[in-house]
C-alpha cells in the first residue's frame, strides 16, 4: 500500500445551476478506515458520493483517489472504486449473476467466478442469483446491488445508504462484509440515516448540513444523540 | 497502490460488452425491436395505400420509394433511440456505468453498436417486405448492404448521442425528433440518392461522392460524440 491516502478531497464544491449542493467539503480517508457521512435530507451526502465516485465533476476543489487525479487518469482511478448509488444500479431484466458478470467485465478481463459465488453466499442471495432482478424484493435487490459494488474487488468503497431496505440479518451480513473489507486494507465511505448502525460500523464520522461539513469525530467518543442533534430534527 | 497491475479491459472490449448487454436486454423484452417494427409496418402499409403502386415501378418511382424507406428507417430509429437509455435510468445503472473504468467513449460506442445492429435488423426485415409489397426489384445485395450499413451507422451515432442528451428530460422523445432530423438531413439525402442510384443503375457509377459524404458524416458524428458524450452523461 502506498503512502497516499485512499481519498484526499480538498474544498470540494458542486453547483447545480444556482444551487450549491456541496460547499467546500474536505475529506481525507485513510486505508482501512470506515467513514460515515450523516446529515439531514438535502445535506449533500449523495452529491458528495457522486463527486467522490467521479460520476460528477466538482465545480471547484481537488480530488485524489489513491494518489491518482481522476481528471488525469480516470480509468485507473475508477478501477479502484466500488459504488452503491441511490438506486440499485442493476438491469432488472438480467439475473443477479448476469448483472455481476457484466459489471465485473468492465473492470477485469477475467471475472473471478469463485469470488463472485462467495460474495453472493456472504450476502445471502446465492440461491436467488439466477432470478431476474425484477423478481426480487427490495431488500434482496439491495443485497444484489451491494454484491455488484463489491464484485470486482474494489479498494475504495462508496456506499450511498447501504442499510436502506435491509432486514436485521441483511444488516449483520453487510456489516460483517464491510469490516472484512476494511480489515483487508480497503477504505469505506458510506452515508445513511441509521445513526446507531452507522456509528457502530464507522471508525470516524462526518456531518453535512446544507452542503457544508459542520462536524466530524471518531465513533468511540460520540453518542447517537450527539449526531442526531447535529443533523437536526429532519435527519 | 499499484494501479498498473490492474488488468483493465480495453475500450473496444468494454464497448462490445455494453453492446452485448443491450442486445441481451432487447432479446429478453423485445420492447424496442417490436416498437420499431410495428411503426415501420404501419408506415409501409399506409404508404402502400396512399401511393399508386404502379407509379413506384416507373423510373421516377424508385426515388420516391427510396425516400419513403429512409423516412421509415429514420422514424422507426427515433422510436428505438428514444428508449436506448431507459434501462440505464430506471434503476440508476447509468451512475454505476459512468463510475466504471469503461469510460464515456466505450459507453457511446457500445450503445451505438447496439442501436446500429437493431436498425440493420429492422432494415433486413422491412426491405424484403417493401420489395414484395410494391413489386419492385431488389438492388444488388452486396451494394445494398454497404449503403444500409454506412448510413445506418451515422443515424445510430446521432441517435445515441441525442438519445442520451434527452433521456433525462420530460418529453425528451419529442425533442429527440426535433434535434435528430435536421442534423441527419445530409445523411438521409445521401442515403436516398445512393439507394435510388443503386436501384436504377444497379452499379456504383456516379455514387462515389455520396458515399464519401456519408463516410465523412459518420466520422464527424463519431468525433463529435466522443468529445461531447462525457458531458452528456453528466447531470
Quick overview:
Chain A has 235 residues and is an alpha/beta fold.
Distance N to C terminus of chain A: 36 Å
- List the total number of helices of chain A: 8
Sheet-strand content of chain A, in percent, reads 15-25%
Major sheet of chain A = 6 strands, mixed
Which structural class do you get from the secondary structure elements of chain A? Answer: alpha/beta
Question: Averaged pLDDT of chain A, please?
Answer: 92
Radius of gyration of chain B: 19 Å
What would you call the structural class of chain B?
mainly alpha
Strand order of the largest sheet of chain A: 5-6-7-3-8-9
Radius of gyration of chain A equals 17 Å
Largest sheet of chain B: none
Helix content of chain B: over 70%
Sequence stretches where pLDDT stays below 50 over 5 or more residues of chain B: 1-5
The unreliable regions of chain A are: none
Shape of chain A: globular
Shape of chain B: globular
Strand segment tally of chain B: 0
Compute the average pLDDT of chain B: 89
List keywords for this structure.
heterodimer; A: 235 residues; alpha/beta; six-stranded mixed sheet; three-stranded antiparallel sheet; 8 helices; 9 strands; 25% strand; B: 235 residues; mainly alpha; 82% helix; disordered N terminus
Characterise this structure:
- The complex is a heterodimer of chains A (235) and B (235).
- With 235 residues, chain A is α/β, with parallel strands linked by helices.
- Helix content of chain A is 34%, strand content 25%.
- Chain A is built from 8 helices and 9 strands.
- A 6-stranded mixed β-sheet of chain A has the order 5-6-7-3-8-9, sandwiched between helices. A 3-stranded antiparallel β-sheet of chain A has the order 2-1-4, covered by helices on one side.
- In chain A, a hairpin with a 2-residue loop joins strand 8 (204-209) and strand 9.
- Chain A is globular and about 45 Å long.
- The mean pLDDT of chain A is 92.
- With 235 residues, chain B is mainly α.
- Chain B has 10 helices and no strands.
- In chain B, helix 2 runs antiparallel to helix 4.
- Residues 1-5 of chain B have low confidence and may be disordered.
- The chains are: A alpha/beta (235), B mainly alpha (235).
- Chains A and B meet through helix 2 and helix 3 of A and helix 1 and helix 6 of B.
Amino acid at each position: 500500500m502506498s503512502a497516499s491516502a485512499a481519498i484526499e478531497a480538498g474544498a470540494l464544491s458542486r453547483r447545480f445551476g444556482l444551487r450549491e449542493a456541496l460547499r467546500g467539503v474536505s475529506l481525507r480517508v485513510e486505508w482501512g478506515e470506515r467513514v460515515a457521512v450523516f446529515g439531514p435530507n438535502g445535506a449533500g451526502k449523495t452529491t458528495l458520493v457522486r463527486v467522490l465516485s467521479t460520476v460528477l465533476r466538482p465545480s471547484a476543489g481537488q480530488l485524489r483517489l489513491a494518489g491518482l487525479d481522476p481528471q488525469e487518469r480516470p480509468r485507473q482511478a475508477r478501477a479502484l472504486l466500488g459504488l452503491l448509488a441511490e438506486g440499485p444500479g442493476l438491469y432488472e431484466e438480467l439475473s443477479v449473476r448476469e448483472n455481476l458478470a457484466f459489471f465485473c467485465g468492465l473492470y477485469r478481463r477475467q471475472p473471478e467466478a469463485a469470488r463472485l459465488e462467495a460474495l453472493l453466499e456472504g450476502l445471502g442471495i446465492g440461491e436467488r442469483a439466477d432470478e431476474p432482478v425484477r423478481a426480487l424484493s427490495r431488500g434482496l435487490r439491495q443485497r444484489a446491488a451491494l454484491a455488484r459494488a463489491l464484485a470486482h474487488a474494489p479498494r475504495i468503497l462508496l456506499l450511498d445508504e447501504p442499510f436502506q431496505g435491509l432486514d436485521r440479518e441483511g444488516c449483520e451480513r453487510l456489516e460483517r462484509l464491510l469490516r472484512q473489507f476494511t480489515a483487508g486494507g480497503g477504505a469505506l465511505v458510506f452515508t445513511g440515516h441509521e445513526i446507531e448502525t452507522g456509528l457502530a460500523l464507522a471508525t470516524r464520522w462526518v456531518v453535512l448540513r446544507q452542503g457544508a461539513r459542520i462536524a466530524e469525530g471518531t465513533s468511540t467518543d460520540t453518542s447517537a444523540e450527539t449526531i442526531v442533534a447535529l443533523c437536526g430534527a429532519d435527519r | 497502490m499499484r494501479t498498473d497491475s490492474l488488468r483493465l479491459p480495453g475500450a473496444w472490449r468494454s464497448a462490445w460488452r455494453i453492446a452485448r448487454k443491450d442486445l441481451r436486454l432487447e432479446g429478453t423484452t423485445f420492447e424496442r425491436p417490436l416498437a420499431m417494427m410495428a411503426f415501420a409496418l404501419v408506415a409501409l402499409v399506409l404508404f402502400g395505400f396512399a401511393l399508386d403502386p404502379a407509379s413506384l415501378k416507373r423510373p421516377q418511382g424508385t426515388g420516391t420509394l427510396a425516400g419513403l424507406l429512409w423516412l421509415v428507417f429514420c422514424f422507426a430509429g427515433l422510436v428505438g433511440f428514444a428508449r436506448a437509455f431507459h434501462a440505464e435510468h430506471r434503476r440508476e445503472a447509468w451512475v454505476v456505468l459512468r463510475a466504471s473504468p469503461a469510460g464515456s467513449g466505450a459507453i457511446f460506442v457500445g450503445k451505438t453498436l447496439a442501436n446500429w445492429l437493431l436498425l440493420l435488423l429492422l432494415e433486413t426485415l422491412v426491405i424484403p417486405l417493401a420489395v414484395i409489397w410494391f413489386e419492385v426489384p431488389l438492388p444488388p445485395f452486396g451494394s445494398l448492404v454497404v449503403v444500409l450499413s454506412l448510413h445506418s451507422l451515422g443515424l445510430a451515432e446521432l441517435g445515441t448521442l441525442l438519445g442520451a442528451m434527452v433521456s433525462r428530460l420530460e418529453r425528451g422523445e419529442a425533442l429527440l425528433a426535433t434535434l435528430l432530423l435536421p442534423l441527419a438531413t445530409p445523411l438521409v439525402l445521401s442515403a436516398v440518392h445512393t439507394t435510388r442510384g443503386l436501384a436504377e443503375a444497379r452499379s456504383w457509377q456516379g455514387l462515389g461522392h455520396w458515399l464519401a459524404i456519408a463516410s465523412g458524416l459518420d466520422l464527424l458524428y463519431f468525433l463529435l460524440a466522443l468529445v461531447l458524450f462525457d458531458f452528456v452523461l453528466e447531470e
